[in-house]
Design the sequence.
């Protein structure tokens, strides 16, 4: 019989559960949620709440987390991926629609996550009831949504991750002669006009090929500019780069699931360190 190699990596696994057919009163639609529940004896686990849960497989989330936990690089976690409905209306900034009236249901979506889904997950599954380690994340518009929800619910979330976040979200068309980077980007104004939440930590990712647009013609694409400007607003509130704020810029990174999947390990090791 082969002697057990002490260097072998212990295996870790998930149970996959799909919550389907549940009607949300707040969103007035059926919301499906995809869950990854660790197979183990631990009583409670930290939670990753993910926008665009329909993309979990394309992001290779299960295999990435399984590998990281098996290598003892992150702690076991529960993942709840909320399948998107009308992204252009449910994602955004809860306090204000954009100039095309998008984000009209962002307030309802935020309320759904915080008052319907999260209490249910804590009641039904072995989710740690404290916000310690609890993280919300998303990609593109889902990243904007995650940032807004975390900023306005610091009692529920400790960390937020935004992959290529849509921080261009604005209340006036950028082609307007009255457009102002300072006044019109909605999430930036939320941070500028809000109060510091002492417990929050932030992780941002961009790719150098996220897009080609360069509104201010400074040679830096808008995705990177908008994210870096948001980080500036956070530092003005007293958040510290490299301690409270992490920024990961991927050379040749694109605005797609393959890039975000590639960045996922770095995010998870930041959000759920062993």
Sequence:
């Amino acid at each position: 019989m082969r002697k057990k190699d002490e260097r072998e990596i212990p295996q870790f696994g998930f149970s996959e559960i799909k919550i389907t057919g549940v009607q949300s009163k707040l969103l007035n639609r059926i919301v499906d949620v995809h869950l990854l529940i660790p197979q183990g004896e631990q009583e409670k686990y930290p939670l990753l709440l993910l926008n665009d849960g329909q993309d979990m497989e394309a992001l290779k989330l299960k295999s990435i987390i399984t590998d990281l936990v098996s290598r003892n690089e992150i702690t076991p976690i529960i993942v709840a991926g909320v399948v998107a409905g009308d992204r252009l209306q449910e994602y955004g900034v809860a306090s204000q629609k954009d100039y095309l009236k998008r984000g009209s249901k962002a307030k309802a979506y935020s309320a759904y996550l915080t008052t319907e889904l999260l209490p249910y997950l804590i009641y039904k599954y072995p989710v740690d009831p404290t916000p310690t380690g609890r993280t919300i994340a998303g990609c593109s518009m889902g990243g904007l949504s995650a940032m807004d929800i975390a900023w306005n619910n610091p009692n529920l979330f400790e960390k937020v991750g935004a992959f290529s976040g849509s921080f261009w979200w604005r209340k006036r068309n950028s082609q307007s002669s009255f457009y102002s980077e300072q006044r019109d980007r909605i999430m930036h104004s939320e941070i500028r006009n809000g109060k510091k939440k002492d417990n929050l930590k932030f992780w941002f990712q961009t790719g150098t090929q996220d897009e080609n647009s360069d509104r201010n013609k400074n040679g830096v694409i808008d995705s990177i500019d908008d994210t870096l400007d948001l980080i500036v607003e956070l530092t003005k509130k007293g958040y510290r780069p490299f301690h409270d704020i992490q920024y990961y810029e991927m050379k040749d990174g694109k605005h797609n699931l393959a890039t975000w999947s590639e960045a996922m390990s770095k995010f998870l090791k930041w959000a759920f360190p062993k």
The two ends are 33 Å apart (CA to CA). The first strand starts at residue 14 and ends at 24. Residues 89 and 104 are 5 Å apart (CA to CA).
